[in-house]
Amino acid sequence: MNIQNCYCVIMAGGSGTRFWPVSRTSRPKQFLDVASKGKTFIRETYDRFLKIVPKENIIIATAAKYREIVQEQIPEIDSSNILLEPYPRSTAPCIAYATYTLLKRNPEAQVVVTPSDHLIDDEDLFVETIRKAFEYVETNDVLMTLGVVPTRPDTNYGYVQAMGGKEAFLSDTPMQVKTFTEKPDKDMATLFINTGEFFWNAGIFIWRASTIKSEMEKYLPEVTDLFNGWEAAIGSKIEEEFILRAFSDCMNISIDYGVMEKTDRAWIYPVKFGWNDLGTWESLYNFLPEKDEDGNAFQSGKILAEDTHNVMVVSPEKKKLIAIKGLEDYMIIDTDDVLVICPKDDKKFKDFISGIAMPDYEKYR
Amino acid sequence: MNIQNCYCVIMAGGSGTRFWPVSRTSRPKQFLDVASKGKTFIRETYDRFLKIVPKENIIIATAAKYREIVQEQIPEIDSSNILLEPYPRSTAPCIAYATYTLLKRNPEAQVVVTPSDHLIDDEDLFVETIRKAFEYVETNDVLMTLGVVPTRPDTNYGYVQAMGGKEAFLSDTPMQVKTFTEKPDKDMATLFINTGEFFWNAGIFIWRASTIKSEMEKYLPEVTDLFNGWEAAIGSKIEEEFILRAFSDCMNISIDYGVMEKTDRAWIYPVKFGWNDLGTWESLYNFLPEKDEDGNAFQSGKILAEDTHNVMVVSPEKKKLIAIKGLEDYMIIDTDDVLVICPKDDKKFKDFISGIAMPDYEKYR
Predict the structure, then answer these.
(1) C-alpha to C-alpha distance for A167 and A173, rounded to whole angstroms
(2) Fewest CB within 10 A of the end CB: N or C in chain B?
(3) How many of the other CB atoms lie within 10 Å of CB of B252?
(4) Cα A281 to Cα A292: distance, rounded to the nearest angstrom
């Protein structure tokens, strides 16, 4: 395997409102350090992939409006390695743009495509896993996705059923994919994990650029047709205009739905490192390692808590004294301009406030 | 009655931490508009007494450190009418200082002494009541205190037992005082209000300056001895030094405990206007007239509340969006640097945070 042929595409275009009110459209989760790791998610992701591919082979694809935040957080990245999506169009158009860009640079390109806001708990194992996946796709014309062994019937994740199941997992062997299922209900998820054939779809893909190109052309011609003429346009003076037009007309579709669920080239590589997409405030609470004897997780300044259990307090500035009494299983999120106090597991209320309230709130300010 | 002989002394020296964290030692309750009346307590008190006595007859006694706040909130007051207490010594030394000051100006002075942070709900009736009390003390050598008919066995108030009770109340007649009781327990308070002989002590006193002077000399010589020489000192160049020395050596004692409970000249005048000393956050909740259909009182900016009942939210800047779910009988107080979330009636916790936490917190900042 020639490491000069290995590339990384970090997708950082999401407007991540799930950590609202800490995350905002103007500064979504990937640009924050919600998990108090000392680095923002995108910085940590970038540093992780620096251990795998050369610096000049790391591409960040993001929304045009986040260019400055990316440059501020990854100052060493060359501006030609920041791909700007003029409109939010989910992952398939983003991957199309990145794929054509890399093919223009190197027809032999092998690529790992990754979200920018996940937690990985064993970097060495992660690095080793990605290297092995690169080796596999070098000689196999497959679209590889990483699969995490599920530990609970989580209904927030996508599930991938593999031909091979536990044995393949134990022997560290890539398996062909049988089915994809997006966010099943609780009963279905429980059934899934009991079979031993299902994995969580980590959303990290490894493939040759030429493979994903031909599979997209096959299953998503509505998208790839818009990129006709990419060989001349990309890297030229008209790139920005070309991309603006392509994205403008493009459908909004994920690579999972548009390609992975349809192709017979989908393979899954079972992984053994710890993975968490921190998709909800509650998952952050579950992740935070330091809890007090009452199960409280305080990501804040000085706290006085009495008769309070399993409560999470997040006050990003950590400047405020917060005194709480008599709360159970609550979360308290305090920012400069928003205060949320609600049960940790109340997804409906949180969706309500981060969905309905947020745009309304932008107006309100 | 000669109105030129009528004076008002507004006591505004308290460091009021009961509305912490909104009130601070640096800006206690009397300088705030906790009840959202559109005026601070001291401003409202001052304006109320302007309807009774001439402007130049209103004295404000306050702690030296609050001089600037007083001047800012009552810009029209002459600086000679601001008496500065160099040390906090409760009400008796404050009243001694004010009494000598007024006697120096006018040996015939009649005085109403009042706290600066109470709510009065019928100003016309209040004005009429004080005028009648002034008339009474003009010809009677008594120390008059205003008595409010108790509506509940409140354990935060002082109670005054009167010779006369309900009949005297109905006929609007001052009554001699039988007993004083500071903050009884619940059973005692219930007993009190059932007899019909007890009133809440509003802490508003009316007397002739010469009467309180001689009663203080009789019952509090430890205090009055320190003011020996006041005729020469007050109004002279040495006043500040004289007062500094007097307060420095003076005991800390209230006029109730030091004089009113001991003298046989204590009389009570029953009042019919609404009165509330807003001594606790909970009393503010009870006072606030505009509650939503779930009994919530929101003194804040935009609120999203679901499944929330009898909750008070106070966010003085009113700039923040506050989203709450599933709280019952709670109070949420949010300031720039402190957030309190606790049951409204949990006096112990509130005392804890405003007592223990506050000095600690000043350190913490």
Answers:
(1) 9
(2) C
(3) 11
(4) 18
pTM to 2 decimals?
0.80
Residue pair B10/B203 in contact by the 8 Å Cβ criterion: no
In degrees and rounded to multiples of 5, residue A128 shows phi and psi of -65, -40
Of A306, A322, A342, the CB nearest to B325: A342
Euclidean distance between CA atoms A310 and A339, whole angstroms: 19
Give the residue ranges of chain A where pLDDT is below 70: 16, 165, 354-365
pLDDT digits (tens, 9 = 90+) for B259-288: 999 999 999 999 989 898 888 888 889 888
Cα–Cα distance measured from residue B1 to residue B132, given in angstroms and rounded to the nearest whole number? 10
Helix/strand/coil percent split, chain A, to 5: 40, 25, 35
Please report the pLDDT score of residue B86 as a whole number: 94
Task: Look at the block and give the residue holding tokens 């009165």.
Answer: B275
Rounded to the nearest integer, the mean pLDDT of chain B is: 91
Q: Cα-atom radius of gyration of chain B, to the nearest Å?
A: 21
CB contact (8 A) between residue B21 and residue A361: no
Nearest residue of A to residue B338, measured between CA atoms: A321
At residue B354, what are phi and psi to the nearest 5 degrees? -85, -20
The answer to whether B170 and B293 are in contact (CB under 8 A) is: no
Q: Tell me what ipTM this predicted complex has.
A: 0.76
| Nearest CB neighbour to B339, from listed A21, A322, A353 | A322
Nearby residues of B151 by Cβ (< 8 Å), 6 or more positions away = none
DSSP, collapsed to helix, strand or coil, labels residue B320 as coil
Chain B residues touching residue A353 (CB < 8 angstroms): 304, 323
C-beta separation of A223 from A258 below 8 A? yes
> d(Cα A87, Cα A3) in Å, to the nearest integer?
32
Q: Please name the residue that has the structure tokens 């609007």.
A: B172
User: A326 and B340: CB-CB below 8 Å?
Assistant: no
Contact assessment for residue A278 and residue A118, using Cβ atoms and an 8 Å cutoff: yes
First CA to last CA distance, chain A? 54
Of A320, A337, A353, nearest to B304 by CB-CB distance is A353
Query: In chain A, which residues have their Cβ closer than 8 Å to the Cβ of B332?
Result: 339, 341
C-alpha to C-alpha distance for B109 and B204, rounded to whole angstroms: 17
What are B13's two structure tokens?
């020296």
Closest CB to B337: pick one of A319, A342, A364: A319
Q: How far apart are CA A329 and CA B327, in angstroms?
A: 12
| Cβ contact A184:A224 at 8 Å | no
Give contacts of A323 with chain B, Cβ < 8 Å. 338-342, 349, 353, 357
Residue of A nearest to B308 (CA): A342
DSSP A149: P
Q: Please, which residues bridge with residue A120 across strands?
A: A275
* pLDDT tens digit sequence for B33-79: 988 888 999 999 999 999 999 999 999 999 999 999 999 999 999 99
Q: Do A324 and B342 touch (CB under 8 A)?
A: yes
